[in-house]
Amino acid sequence: MPTYEGSDIQAAVNEGLQAMHLTREEVTVDVLEAGKKGFLGFGRRLAVVRLTPNEQPSQVKQSAPAPVQAPVEPTPTDNLTSTPQKRKSGAETEAELSAYLEAITAQIGTPVSIHVTHDHRSTTYHLKTDKEGLLIGKHGKTINALQYLAQTYFDHHMKGKQTIILEVGDYRQRRAAIVSHLADKAAREVVATGKPVFLEPMPGFERKIVHGHLATNHHVQTHSEGQGDRRSIVVELARTF
């Protein structure tokens, strides 16, 4: 039997019904692939179904059937976000995460080799590629998105807290220096004007750099405001009592 594809199961079923000139009641639907939206455009897959006419189908209609209600689409299984049945070992998690990162970076045209290092607070995946700029992305958006996925995977498969860092060349080191410079500049402006300064939105690990860097500056204090990817740091004069 032929198979039919669509952006989701319902679209694939409708495609098949129109091609076969049958109604939903006249066929049996087998879902071969539930489809996957992917993340940031990565890993997207079409839904695939097979339609089998029932043993005694009704008279074939010449006109295309009206849109039908397809079965409820099952949630695609995603190894990065699904809750596992049992915890994996550190070696298993590291190997699977490395394989995932190799696969997804190959899809976006930046194949990598991976070297992993550890310390007592973090695990760093060093991604070596000939296309560092493309892998990092504008303002680090691509590498930060991959790091978020990697952290989510680790948190679902391992006990305890461990920070996952994705490093490309010395990008994290260079970015930390830039963030620290921005923090110092904001602190000087606050002291000079007496007015608070709102820094650009940053991911959590970069906000942590700012908080830590300015913690020893007794003239200013910091706090975070906003939600999600719009969360940012406010630098203001330290309160005196």
Protein model, in words:
With 241 residues, the protein is an alpha+beta fold. It folds into three domains: 3-53, no CATH class; 90-168, K homology (KH) domain (GMP Synthetase, Chain A, domain 3, 2-Layer Sandwich); 172-237, Ribosomal Protein S8, Chain: A, domain 1 (2-Layer Sandwich), CATH 3.30.1370. Helices cover 36% and strands 21% of the residues. The strands form three sheets. A three-stranded antiparallel β-sheet has the order 1-3-2. β4 (113-118) and β5 (122-128) form a beta hairpin. The radius of gyration is 26 Å and the shape is elongated.
Quick synopsis:
This protein is of the alpha+beta class and 241 residues long.
CATH superfamily of the largest domain, called what? K homology (KH) domain
CATH class of the largest domain: Alpha Beta
CATH topology label of the largest domain:
GMP Synthetase, Chain A, domain 3
Count of alpha and pi helical runs: 6
Structure characteristics:
RNA binding, GMP Synthetase, Chain A, domain 3, 241 residues, 3 domains, alpha+beta, Ribosomal Protein S8, Chain: A, domain 1, 3-stranded antiparallel β-sheet, chaperone, single chain, R3H_KhpB, 3-stranded mixed β-sheet, cytoplasm
